[in-house]
C-alpha cells in the first residue's frame, strides 16, 4: 500500500489556527484510506506554535503573523519535521491543505491579511516539492484517487 503524507487538519485533527479542522468528507477519507496508508502532519504545531494561534501569512521569504511577529523559524522547523516524516515513511506524495502558509500549493494569501491570494507555495509544500515529492491540494483528491497505481 502506498504511503501518503497528509495535512492533519484534512483528517479532522483540530490543529487549525482557529482551533478547528478542515476535515474532508467521510467518503473522501474512506476512499483515501482504502488506497493509502495516511501519515498526518501539522507543520505549524510541529514547529512549536500553539493551537489556537494568531493567523500568519507568507511575506516573501518570511512568515509573519497578524500581530507583526516573525514566525519564520517555527514554520521552517515544521517543514523540516514534515520532510523527516516523508523520508521516514517513504512518501513520494503529500496531500496538503490549499492556501495555507505552510501547506498551500500554487496559491497562498499575499501577506496583507486582506484575503487576497497570490501565486506561491506554503513553506512545507515548497520544501517537500524541492526535495522531489509531489504535492497535491485537496481539490486534486478525485484525480489522485482515479490514478492507476498498480
Ligand atoms: Fe492544516 Fe497545515 Fe495549517 Fe496544520 S499547518 S492546520 S496541517 S493547513
Describe this structure in words.
The chain has 150 residues and is of the alpha/beta class. Helices cover 31% and strands 23% of the residues. The chain is built from five helices and eight strands, in the order βαβαββαβββαβα. It has helices spanning 26-35, 43-46, 72-89, 123-130, 141-146; strands at 2-7, 36-41, 56-59, 62-65, 93-96, 107-109, 117-119, 134-137. The strands form three sheets. A four-stranded parallel beta sheet has the order 2-1-5-8. It has a two-stranded antiparallel ribbon with strand order 3-4. A two-stranded antiparallel sheet has the order 6-7. Helix 3 (72-89) packs across helix 4 (123-130). It is globular. The chain starts with a strand and ends with a helix. The model has no long low-confidence stretch (mean pLDDT 97). The site of iron/sulfur cluster (SF4) has 12 residues, from helix 2.
List the helices and strands and how they pair.
Layout: E1 2-7, H1 26-35, E2 36-41, H2 43-46, E3 56-59, E4 62-65, H3 72-89, E5 93-96, E6 107-109, E7 117-119, H4 123-130, E8 134-137, H5 141-146
Parallel strand pairs: 1-2, 1-5, 5-8
Antiparallel strand pairs: 3-4, 6-7
Helix pairs in contact: 3-4
The structure holds iron/sulfur cluster.
For the largest sheet, list the strands in their spatial order: 2-1-5-8
Weakly predicted, low-confidence segments = none
Order of helices and strands: EHEHEEHEEEHEH
Strand content: 15-25%
State the share of residues found in helices, binned by percent: 25-40%
Bound ligand species: iron/sulfur cluster
Biggest sheet architecture? 4 strands, parallel
How many extended strands?
8
Number of DSSP helical runs: 5
Could you give the distance between the termini? 10 Å
Output mean pLDDT: 97
How much is the radius of gyration in Å? 15 Å
Query: Pairing-aware structural class of the strands and helices?
Result: alpha/beta
Amino acid at each position: 500500500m502506498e504511503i501518503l503524507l497528509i495535512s492533519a487538519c484534512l483528517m479532522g485533527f483540530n490543529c487549525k489556527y482557529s482551533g478547528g479542522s478542515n476535515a474532508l468528507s467521510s467518503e473522501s477519507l474512506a476512499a483515501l484510506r482504502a488506497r493509502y496508508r495516511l501519515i498526518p502532519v501539522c507543520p505549524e504545531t510541529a514547529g512549536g506554535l500553539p493551537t489556537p494561534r494568531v493567523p500568519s501569512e507568507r511575506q516573501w521569504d518570511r512568515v509573519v503573523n497578524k500581530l507583526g511577529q516573525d514566525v519564520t523559524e517555527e514554520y521552517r522547523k515544521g517543514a523540516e519535521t514534515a520532510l523527516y516524516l516523508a523520508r521516514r515513511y517513504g512518501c513520494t506524495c503529500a496531500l496538503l491543505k490549499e492556501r495555507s502558509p505552510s501547506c498551500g500549493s500554487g496559491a497562498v494569501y499575499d501577506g496583507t491579511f486582506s484575503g487576497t491570494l497570490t501565486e506561491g507555495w506554503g513553506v512545507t509544500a515548497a520544501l517537500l516539492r524541492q526535495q522531489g515529492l509531489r504535492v497535491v491540494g485537496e481539490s486534486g483528491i478525485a484525480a489522485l484517487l482515479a490514478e492507476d497505481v498498480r
